[in-house]
Design a protein that fits this description.
By secondary structure, the protein is an alpha+beta fold. It contains 22 helices and 38 strands. InterPro entries: aa-tRNA-synth_II/BPL/LPL (IPR045864), B3/B4_tRNA-bd (IPR005146), DNA-bd_dom_put_sf (IPR009061), Fdx_antiC-bd (IPR005121), Fdx_antiC-bd_sf (IPR036690), NA-bd_OB-fold (IPR012340), Phe-tRNA-ligase_IIc_bsu (IPR045060), Phe-tRNA-ligase_IIc_bsu_bact (IPR004532).
Length: 820
């Protein structure tokens, strides 16, 4: 919908500045797509008066030369507009503006331009020059007189479930709620006690109350249908792509944009007897553009005692429409439940090509129905003149009661949901201003709330809580952010002051996102299990254990992890992905458990495990878990704390016999031991009676804080415009040299070259053992992507870079360049 500040402020009966209005429009849930500033279009326009019109026929092309008085001087202006005439006051653009420039026309200079309606008022189809009222002084600025057009125009869109934001009153209603104001119609001059000038009316009758529970009507006499519709109304209709016709239809459409309710207007002199809302009978028809339309049986219609007036939701009978000679009109405003007969409407589209014009989410409020017909009457009498009659109503109360919706809202749930306690008074005040009705309360513990008819989107407690939060204002809640937000802020802003617990929190959250479940086990474990898993570690014995199975302090989280796997597998649960965090305890070196000066150290650790079985699924093949699944998960969670992977190195496992040495690795953070990863040894599994493979990692959290450079600060770097170059080499290394060390050395050399503005990325694409390779050695092929950020590299420069890598590999690993 498009609307300007003036339009919305016509409804608001309290002071509000433009910036606050824009902020509140966004806050209630309306997205402002674009803003059109009016002052930009009016600042160079002044009032002029046409004092002379001359005809010009150069090159047999007719044209008008207008002499326009702007107060200080006379201007000669070329114009072909048909509505120009002597003594007409016009809008003159005297400088370069948004669409008009001084230009040369037929070798003569037009000293200014006259502004058209489609330039000032956004009237798409009206290309006539603007006629300024006679009381505007010559030479004065247009903006001084058209002050309402200085207001900004908003192009907005609302969420799909808030159809009440598609009209002005729906927007006003929520803005009033934000400002804690009662909804009022006095500012908009809707006078319910209007002076009645005649007694003419029609009797109303409804035979299908479930389809139409409300209907209001009024007769207005002595209406001038031939009068011109005001420009401000045509403009607002044009914004919203409404085709303008006669003033009565324009007013109908305008009021629908304001209130959301449709108005029917008919020629009163052609109505015979009472008006009835009923189902169509057999062989009934109407005329549409001189074409006879046979009605489908049981169609909902408006009729008088002689003929069909309208097919509801489709079209009106041509005979009853407003014509140029119409002077007495009948207004009808009703509410229909289109959901109950939408199939019938679709049949007309299929049979006759007549599209349905219904609003299935229409409000069902008799007060708004009354206000809509009053607002329509006000605009008709103001623009077209006329004398109003009394309003005739028909309301089917029983049907209205059936349609009311109620929700019981517990105050305790509000506090639990938003994490903040609001008073009963504040909650009830917000709901009342939004149009909700509080039917009862139980000692302020819960509220029984009646949902207003226009809030189709409200169906459960959480919907009402969302409304309370929205109107109370997100900014009004205490600024005590959750730990989650605090830590995220540090990570996003590249802060290096993450605490050990912050890091642990992020790692645990990442594991949970990967589908792992957190477990908590005792810090006391069975001594036999400790000796089975870590026989070479000094552990702390408890002098007075509560159980023989809880006699020593754990030195690792892995015993608890394995016990949890064992427990679950015995209960036929093989889909296991678990993790645990906590402290482990060690005797300091040169201490013994018997010493009176025993000193204990503790380390914060994180451990996780997955069992060798993927969940069966229709969208992927069933496969076995392998080492790279657990390794990938570990690398993924380390990325969540923005750690730079170049600091981590995976080396061959030499000291942990609980792991299979062929499928495990020790993890180093720079040169400091950081953790262990791999598959649990078959011997351990058999003794614990665990059937399937278990992949485990365990890391020491506090070691992440030892290197402040670990958490890299991401900075923007422009992508080089110069070409990349690919080079491959194959070198022979000793078999025991880990690939990770080779890649680490490549990264080190790349860092050195980066200082010279040369960017190099490296990756291994082939490993070969066999023919032509000596036993105990293997050939490793490395691909280099080389690029200079400042120039195009020549061949000898590229070769020099590759040579640097080859020399460093020879120096550190005694590698041999493989011959082609």
């Amino acid at each position: 919908m498009k609307f300007d500040e003036t339009w919305i402020k016509e409804w608001i009966d309290f002071e509000i500045d433009s910036e606050s209005l824009l902020e509140q429009i966004t806050r209630i849930g309306i997205e402002v797509n674009k803003i059109f500033p009016r002052e930009k279009y009016l600042e160079n326009m002044i009032v002029g008066k046409i004092v002379k019109i001359s005809e010009c026929f150069e090159n047999k092309i007719p044209s008008k030369v207008l002499t326009v008085d702007i107060g200080k001087k006379l201007l000669k202006i070329f114009c072909n507009s048909l509505n120009s005439r002597l003594n007409m006051k016009v809008a003159v653009s005297i400088q370069k503006s948004y669409s008009i420039k001084n230009k040369k026309k037929r070798e003569q200079i037009s000293e200014a331009c006259l502004c058209r309606y489609n330039q000032i008022f956004f009237l798409k189809e009206n290309r006539n020059i603007v006629e300024i009222p006679k009381n505007f002084s010559i030479g004065s600025k247009i903006g001084k007189h058209l002050i309402q057009y200085y207001q900004r125009t908003f192009d907005s869109s609302s969420v799909s479930n808030r159809k009440d934001f598609d009209y002005i009153f729906g927007i006003y209603r929520d803005i009033a709620a934000i400002n804690r104001k009662k909804i009022s119609f006095q500012k908009n001059k809707i006078k319910k006690n209007r002076k009645i000038s005649h007694s003419s009316h029609v009797k109303l009758n409804i035979t299908e109350p479930k389809y139409c529970p409300y209907i209001f009507s009024r007769v207005i006499k002595k209406v001038d249908v031939g009068i011109k519709t005001p420009d401000w109304m045509i403009e607002r209709l044009s914004w919203n792509d409404v085709v303008t016709t006669n003033p009565i239809n324009n007013i109908k459409n305008y009021v629908k944009l304001e209130t959301g309710y449709s108005i029917f207007a008919y020629d009163f002199e052609k109505i015979r007897g009472s008006i009835t809302i009923r189902r169509s009978k057999k062989n009934e028809s109407i005329f549409l553009k001189e074409k006879k339309i046979d009605l489908l049986q049981n169609t909902l219609v408006i009729s008088d005692e002689k003929s069909i007036i309208s097919i509801i939701g489709i079209t009106d009978n041509e005979r009853f429409k407003i014509q140029k000679n119409t002077s007495n009109i009948l207004l009808i405003c009703a509410i229909f439940d289109f959901n109950l007969f939408s199939n019938s409407l679709n049949e007309y589209q299929y049979v006759y090509g007549l599209s349905s014009k219904v609003n299935e989410s229409q409000e069902k409020d008799s007060n708004m129905l009354l206000n809509t017909i009053e607002r329509t009457s006000e605009l008709i009498t103001k623009i077209c003149g006329g004398e109003v009659g009394k309003i005739i109503k028909f309301i089917y109360e029983d049907q209205c009661l059936k349609e009311s919706r109620k929700i019981v809202l517990k105050l305790k749930k509000i506090h639990q949901t938003i994490g903040h306690r609001l008073s009963y008074k504040k909650i009830s005040e917000i709901l009342i201003h939004l149009g909700f009705k509080i039917l009862s309360d139980s000692n302020y513990d819960q509220l029984e709330i009646k949902i207003p008819s226009w809030r189709k989107d409200v169906s459960i407690e959480e919907d009402i809580i969302d409304e309370i939060i929205r109107i109370y204002g997100y900014n009004n809640f205490p600024k005590e952010s959750s730990r989650n937000l605090q830590i995220n802020s540090k990570v996003i802003n590249n802060q290096r002051d993450l605490s050990m617990m912050d890091i642990l929190y992020l790692l645990k959250r990442s594991l949970a996102c990967l589908g792992y479940h957190e477990i908590i086990t005792y810090s006391f474990i069975n001594e036999k299990l400790q000796n089975l898993l870590f026989f070479n570690q000094n552990y702390i014995e408890l002098p007075h254990p509560i159980s023989s199975k809880m006699s020593v302090m754990r030195t690792s989280l892995i015993p608890g992890i394995l016990s949890a796997v064992q427990y679950n597998q015995r209960r036929q649960n093989d889909q296991i992905k678990i993790f645990e965090s906590g402290y482990t305890f060690f005797l300091k070196k040169n201490s013994s458990a018997d010493s009176h000066q025993t000193k204990v150290t503790q380390k914060l650790m994180l451990s996780a495990a997955i069992v060798d079985q993927k969940e069966r699924s229709w969208f992927q093949e069933n496969r076995k878990i392998d080492f790279f699944d657990i390794k990938g998960d570990l690398e993924s969670i380390l990325c969540s704390i923005k750690s730079d992977r170049k600091h981590f190195l995976f080396k061959k496992n030499l000291y942990y016999p609980i792991f299979d040495k062929e499928q495990s690795a020790e993890i180093y953070l720079d040169d400091k031991f950081f953790g262990i990863i791999g598959v649990i040894h078959k011997r351990i599994k058999e003794q614990l009676e665990i059937r399937k493979k278990i992949f485990v990692f365990e890391i020491i959290i506090e070691n992440l804080l030892l290197n402040k450079d670990l958490f890299s600060i991401k900075k923007y770097k422009e992508i080089s415009k110069f070409p990349m170059n690919q080079r491959d080499i194959s070198m022979i290394f000793r078999e025991e040299i880990p690939v990770s060390e080779i890649l680490s050395e490549c990264r080190r050399v790349s860092s050195f070259l980066l200082k010279k503005k040369i960017e190099v990325s490296s990756k291994i694409f082939d490993i070969y053992q066999g023919k032509s390779i000596k036993n105990g050695y293997r050939s490793i092929s490395i691909n280099f992507t080389i690029q200079n950020s400042q120039k195009t590299m020549r061949e000898h420069e590229i070769s020099n870079v590759v040579e640097i890598f080859i020399n460093e590999m020879k120096k550190k690993f005694f590698a041999i360049l493989r011959e082609k």
